[in-house]
Design brief:
The protein is of the alpha/beta class. It has helices at 15-26, 52-59, 81-90, and strands spanning 7-12, 30-33, 37-41, 46-51, 70-74, 94-100, 107-112, 118-123. The chain has one domain (7-61, 69-123): Roll (2,3-Dihydroxybiphenyl 1,2-Dioxygenase, domain 1), CATH 3.10.180.10.
């Protein structure tokens, strides 16, 4: 089977608050939006933000709270980490952890979106990013 991910959908509580975080914080543009869901075209997949209540109804499963995961937004240099984190916080995010250098090198910090989804903002010198935004895992 092909290793691929098509869509990641995050449950949210307020469409406008979430939209502000992703549009003003990351600078992303929705490719589709209604009063309960927004889709963002990413490099190779779609990120969706969907009202938790509608997501729960659609999946027949509770969409309360956040699970033990973090999404990552990698940048091409360490000096980009803090400005991205600052923009996200100004757009309604919450600082989880200041940027610091991990043992493997680079720089990373964490910001939670308005619905408490963890975003790691990271520079990893061993993971090059193509001009199209594709990250390649390199040991």
């Amino acid at each position: 089977m092909q290793q691929q991910m098509s869509v990641v959908t995050l449950g949210i509580d307020d469409v406008l608050r979430s939209r502000r975080f992703y549009v003003e914080g990351f600078g992303w543009t929705p490719v589709f939006e209604t009063d309960e869901i927004l889709f963002y075209q990413m490099n190779g997949f779609i990120l969706g933000t969907w009202l938790r209540s509608a997501m729960a109804e659609d999946s027949s499963r509770s969409a309360d709270g956040s699970s033990g995961f973090a999404l990552a937004h990698n940048v091409t240099s360490g000096d980009q980490v803090a400005p991205v984190m600052d923009r996200l916080i100004a757009a309604g995010g919450t600082l989880m952890r200041e940027a610091k250098a991990p043992p493997h090198g680079g720089l990373n910090g964490y910001v939670a979106d308005p619905d408490d989804h963890a975003w790691e903002i990271a520079f990893n010198p061993a993971w090059p990013i193509s001009p199209e935004g594709f990250v390649t895992f390199m040991a």
